Each structure stands twice: as C-alpha cells, then as structure tokens.
Amino acid sequence: MKKIIVLLLVLILVISIVGCTQKKEEVIKMGFVPMKDGDKLIESVEPLTEILSKELGIKVEGFTATNYVGVVEGLGSGQVDFGFIPPFAYVLANKESKADVILTALNKSGEAKYRSQFLVRKDGGIKSFSDIKGKKVAFVDPSSTSGYLFPGAHLIKEGIDLEMDMEYIYAGGHDKALQLLLNGDVNVATTFVDARDRYKEDFPEAMEKTEVLGYTDYIPNISVTVRGDMDKEMQENIKNALLNVAKSEEGAKLLKDLFNMYGFEEATDSDYDIIRTTAESMDVDLKEGN
After folding, report:
1. Rounded to whole angstroms, how far apart are CA atoms 72 and 103?
2. 3-class DSSP state for residue 45?
3. Does the CA dihedral 47-204-210-135 come out positive or negative?
4. What pLDDT was estimated at residue 145?
5. pLDDT digits over 56-77, tens only?
6. Distance between CA 36 and CA 140 in Å, rounded?
7. In the chain, alpha helices (H)
8. 121 with 184: CB under 8 angstroms?
9. By the 8 A CB rule, do 163 and 139 touch?
10. Does the N-terminal or the C-terminal CB of the chain have fewer CB atoms within 10 Å?
C-alpha cells in the first residue's frame, strides 16, 4: 500500500512539473524598445500579438522596456523570447547572451538600411558641422544606433571632440530629441530619417522650423532578435510567422502603422559588423550594456 501511495505521489509530482513546463511554453514574450509612449505602445501592439499567436499556435504577449538596454537584458534573462531592437542593441545582446538575429526590417523603399540625420533650427545659425562646436546636442540614448552611435562617430570624423568641443544630453527618444530642438533647449538633434515626418501629428511645425545639416553612414535596420538559448525550430517558426504576417494585408498595415516597417528580409550576424566597427571608433565597450 505504501508503495502505491509513493508511486501516486511521484506521478502527481511528474504531472505537476510537466504541467508547469507546458504552461511556460504556452506564452512567449515579444519585446520592443520605446518609440514614443510606452503605455500606448503596449496597447497598440495587441493586434500584432494576436496575429502572431494565430500563426505560431502559441500565445504571444508584448513586453516594452523603459529603454533600449531593457530588451537586451530581457533576452539575456529569458524575460523576452524575441524582440524588435535596434542594431546596436542586437550587438550588445549577441555579446552578452548569444542572442541571434533572424530578420531585418525593410523600409518604404524596400531596403534593409537607413541613416540618421542632424537636425538644426533654420534660425539657429548652424550651417556646417564646425558650427556645432560650443553648442548643445540632443542624442537619443547611449544605446541608440541612429540616435547616438553613428551620429557620434560622424561628429568625430568631422573633427569634433564630443567631450571637449560641445555639450550633449540624452533625450530618451527620437520624438523627444526633436521636441527639445523645437523648444530651443538644444541647438542640434540627432534622429532617424525623417523623424519629422514620422511625428508630424505631434510636431506639425517641425518641417517649417528645422532643416537637415547632414547625414550619417547607412545603418542596418531594426532587427528581429531571439534569445540565445532558443531552439532552432522555434527560431524558424517565429521567422516564418513574421514573414507571413508581413505578406498579409492586415499584418502589413500593422507593421507600417506601428513601426514604419514594410516587411522583412533574412539577416545574419555578419550584417552587423559595421555596428561593431563603429562602436570601436566611439570607444564603446560591448559588454554589460556599456
């Protein structure tokens, strides 16, 4: 009798463990970096998570971090299973937790690359990069590829010492950098091309009051990155699901409206070597988000 009871207890324990494991696998988390307003973004991605849930046959939930590195840390800790993150954030995630890139987003022209721009006020008197010396610049975030890494590297090429020749701050978002410029709080703002059009409803006067001083080198687009310990089958499932969503009428509209993405193409780690090279030129330490 005692043996039967022990066997029953063991069986219950095994069933409980299996049940917990299955429960964990029933939900996967899709991470995002903040683009505008975190709370609004969480609400707005629900239609996308619903479509992906149907494609994958697994419930997909959205996760928005408070900054770029938040999703990187989430991928490393297992809190995030896959996410849409900037190229520099991908390089950090790959360095820290062997996260893998599976897709790169396409822009309106069907290209998997973009540039960042230097915006100045038309009445600000800045007509060349040398005029930035002694001025105040709004970068986006220290882990932002288009909002800091590439603009910073470009300024160094232009002979500007970021620490000695100018003052700079981190705005916390491309829209916030643009707002600081329009408010007159900074003299230069770095954003993706063209943030003024992306945020025209919030800043309808941006095109009239600002102009582009110059552009950076081309940057790989936003990446779709999966956690490093994810099995290859799930990676393929997520990749195929996103490709299918991008081909559907509803999915294509969602990607465009939410993130200004026009589809995806397959990506490999070597596509992001230019990010590593640029980081070296900026003396950026690719470990622990620094």
Report:
1. 16
2. coil
3. negative
4. 83
5. 999 999 888 777 778 899 999 9
6. 12
7. 2-25, 38-44, 46-56, 68-77, 87-97, 150-157, 174-183, 195-198, 206-209, 232-247, 249-259, 273-281
8. yes
9. no
10. N
